[in-house]
Amino acid sequence: MSTATRFPDHFRFRLARTDEERTLAYQVRYDVFLRELNYRTFLREADTHQERDEYDTQALLCLVEHRRTGAIAGCMRLVVPCADAPHPLDRLPLEHHCAASLDHPQLRPDLFPREEICEVSRLAVPSYFRHRLGGADLSLEDARAQTYSEEETRTFSLVGVSLFLTATALVGLLERPHVFAMMEPRFARLLALSGLRFERVGALVDYQGPRAPYYIDQRQAVRSLVPGLRSLYETIEQELGEQYRAPVEARGRSALSR
Fold first, then answer.
1. Which of 25, 33, 64, 219 is close enough to 75 for a disulfide, judged by CB 3.0 to 4.6 Å?
2. Which residues contact 200 (CB under 8 A, 6 or more apart)?
3. 3-83+90-252: in CATH 3.40.630.30
């Protein structure tokens, strides 16, 4: 049985619809971006150990949760622009922070209908899910890193890719096919091996390290997935679809409709 086939046995995919679930994502981001990676320009709430910014008010957040322990293995957000929102929420984050680097003649956010674009950002995977136990660069600061079996740790290498599959499924549910993201070129190359072939649409900039803006059409991304990941994608799509369409309390419903 392949690693991708085993992955859903150990992990579940959750829309963060309540304040408590969204707080889990903000806390993971704080741990990864501020404590581990020392991203000093990211906004923080030190008292509550959360990392968040103004775009979170109109973003959908997703969590990847380890089934047996309940630990959050990763999170991501999908930001959608809101035409009647105050600046800068009427634009994507990369339009606000890296507009000068967007130089592609056809694949720029401003060239698509606002209701068809979105941005994937704030992907965060804690260190104990980024490495296998026994790896030379694994930090064992977190005691939870000691609690996973070898069978479980063999699936950890897919956590990052699963977050992009989660984003791909969520984009399909929202029917916003034109997807942008700021990424390191090496990560874009890694995703291409999975069939997620992002196209670079701008210059490399220093944005918490060397990153460039990328674009992908969600519909083409689904068609191009390698066979080994298709079943995992379909599982994610089904799980998120059931949550997205399920009745939610008024506050959660408002967040999902943005």
1. 25
2. 185, 188, 212, 213, 214
3. yes
